[in-house]
Amino acid sequence: MEFFDFHHHKKYIRNGIYNLNIEQIPPDSPYSIGIHPQDIDVAHLEQQFSWMEDTMFQNCFAIGECGLDSLVSIDQKIQEEVFLRQIKMANEVEKPMIIHCVRKFYEVISLGKKAEQPMIIHGFNKKRQIAEDLLANNFYLSFGKAVLYNLSLQDIVKNTPLNKFFLETDNEDFNIGELYLKVSEIKEISLGQLNEQILENLHTIKNG
Ligand SMILES: [Zn+2]
Predict the structure, then answer these.
(1) 123 CA to middle of ligand 1, Å?
(2) Where does residue 125 rank: exposed (0-12), middle (13-18), buried (19+ CB within 10 A)?
(3) Distance 113 CA to ligand 1 centre (A)
(4) Which fold has domain 5-206?
(5) Using one digit for the tens of pLDDT, what is the confidence trace for 95-111?
(6) Residues forming beta bridges with residue 62, ordered by sequence position
(7) What pLDDT digit, counting tens, does each position of 22-75 carry?
(8) How far is the centre of ligand 1, averaged over its atoms, from the C-alpha of 193 (Å)?
(9) How far is the CA of 116 from the centre of ligand 1 (A)?
(10) Alpha carbon distance 82, 78 (integer Å)
(11) What are phi and psi of 131, to 5 degrees?
């Protein structure tokens, strides 16, 4: 069985969404395009946005990863402006957003109210309360490698509705099949059912 990798950085994986590096030329498989908080270059911001506009070809599945990160040195106000601009772009081109968030969940929830497209928090690995607040605000969650060993995250997966999540490898080097297997056990469904559910979720976010 082939498993969809919702967010990854490896060009050789074709069944998933490849996250482009800043100012990179896209592959001919699905990809996401955005300005990550750590890549914001204030002096060349307009150039970065025109790269985005010019590179949203056919296989562009989503805008992102973009969002807010309290640990990078870029000014928070500027991060919010760049994020908001990408929310507006996503609204315009009608594509879902893959969100990177570090310790800024409530700011992301508040800015997210301006989004008209589905928003997916990638690499979710935080507390139960934050997961519940995100879900209550219509966010999707994408889970990665930590689910294999983190018990409290497994509990969050258990409590996340089947139609509200995705699975990803991100930067980690492991077989996504392991993660699908683990999650199918947690959710007490078959691997085939899980696979189908994820494809259905993809279909849902693609169509707004
Ligand atoms: Zn990533």
Answers:
(1) 8
(2) middle
(3) 23
(4) TIM Barrel (3.20.20)
(5) 999 999 999 999 999 99
(6) 32
(7) 999 999 999 999 999 999 999 999 999 999 999 998 899 999 999 999 999 999
(8) 26
(9) 23
(10) 6
(11) -60, -45
